[in-house]
Amino acid sequence: METVLSGIRSTGNLHLGNYLGALKNYVKMQHENRCFFFIADYHSLTTHPDPTQLHPNVHGVLAEYLAAGIDPETATIYIQSDVPQVAELYLLLNMHAFVGELERTASFKEKIRKHPDNVNAGLLTYPVLMAADILLHRATKVPVGKDQEQHLEMTRRFARRFNNIYGVEYFPESMPYNFGAELVKIPGLDGSGKMGKSEGNGIYLADEDAAIRKKVMKAVTDSGPTEPDSPMTECVRNIFTILEAVSTPDTVDYFREQYATCRIRYGDLKKQLAEDIIRVVAPIRERIKDIYNDSAYLSKVVREGGEKARESASETVAEVREIMGIRPF
Ligand code: ATP
Ligand code: MG
Predict the structure, then answer these.
(1) What is the pTM of this model?
(2) Domains observed in the chain
């Protein structure tokens, strides 16, 4: 049995990219593995330090995790800040993380570009906290989307470095995991880049059908192919990428053929895409509404999940302290 871990930043509601890139995969694997799912509220502080929004966001994401099919009877669901051991492991790992390698991280460079006014140390050391999240339970499989590939590579590097420095075989290699052959990246419908909470371009699991139709119909397209088999521009390719994730192969083939023969009508493509997204999202949305208001259930889930997570975490931190020479008198 392998240990699996994954987390979602509590910076807003879950979108289709979170679901198709990561969540759907955890749901499928939760019964065969030792699974931990956590809501990354410490991580949200790097970009969204808003005390009025933090708790409501955690509440929303928790309801969405459960509605998407994570089963608290088999998996351990917890809130990151309920397990303070992660903060200690983060501190200890920081001693072996180099500023140069952190500065070279693609996500850090991107955040600097987008928010030059808030380049805080938490943002720089984000990959170290993420490594601590994963190594805290010595997870071997991490279901993530393609955007997290580099962070996971850094987790392995920190783990190997720790093992080398202290001459131990303690931390395992944490590998990205996806049920398909490749990690997926769900793009936004705004022409370029990924769908993301920070990007503000999400189709959310809590969206009503009408909102989904409206967002999809507004997707950026081009003026259409003029020659047979011409390559797609990025905005159109993005629509096809999402179509492939939610529609049947027949539907995808049909629209590819329409495109290749220059007969495609983007309006029809979008209509189809909207309906297929709704088929995925609507049942989850309805469950979110029920679960969100059941506070007794939600508090039981996080209380029990927090206990289980702290148990696993304290074991690791005690062993890491011992390895590093922090010992009682
Ligand atoms: P933020 O903008 O706050 O970073 P996010 O939308 O990128 O939010 P995260 O909480 O960072 O979401 O990521 C949660 C999980 O969802 C990760 O496993 C990540 O790989 C996955 N994920 C996020 N966006 C996408 C996407 N567009 N396609 C596929 N997977 C994604
Ligand atoms: Mg992200």
Answers:
(1) 0.89
(2) 3-184+294-324 (3.40.50.620), 209-289 (1.10.240.10)
